[in-house]
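Note to self: keep these together.
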Amino acid sequence: MDTAEEQPDEEIDEAFERLLEEGRDRLERPIWTLLPTGLLGGIDVGVGILAYLVVKHETGSQLLAALAFSVGFVALLLARSELFTENFLVPVTTAVAEKGNWGRLLRLWVVTLLTNVAGGAVIIWVILVARPDLAEVTRETGEHYAELGISAKSFMLAVLGGLVITLMTRMQNSTDSMGVKIVPAILFSAVLVGAELFHAVLDQILIIGAAIAGSDITIGQFLTALVWASLGNVVGGVGFVTFLRLVRSAPRVEVERERSATT
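Structure:
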């Protein structure tokens, strides 16, 4: 009986150790490693956007296009690229446990966000040059997100976006099996796109694509969407999923803090 009760706690401890180990690795990466990793993350998302646009153009179905988009998140996982919203659980847990520096966490967020968008911007330009027939669907999709503006609705869409991706990260870090990790990558990315949630990287790339396709989107609209979506994503990812995960693991966090204090 005791063994059966202890097993879930052991699994939680193992998952927590994986979080700390990966978090330390992310926070300690030098800037010359962060830059290409973030750019590749944007490129991987761009591949998913290509699949989304092609399916949306051919079928007109948002749900089928959302499933097609999941190839981008599978690429992120297998290529071990970096996505802004995937850094809400792992490095935050490491920083709270005092195994990492808060300044490095902020650096990780800022560099990853900017390089994700930059990498995606290059890919969406390539896509539209190679496939000009996708310009109309790109314009319509990008304008949708650019016109969300600042409102309770757009903020909650961003909160849900951060929550969904952080929950995906949580599920992936509960196992060492790459095959199992692919399942949440497909399911949760499809939810993100299918529900048209507000995502700081994905939707900014689409907004840039809309501008390239001829939309009169302004820089002000782009920056507003970038900041507003990022804020909502942080609230959803850190404020909901990560916070509750830390509450559940409070004893382990305290142990790690004590270890850090004595070293």
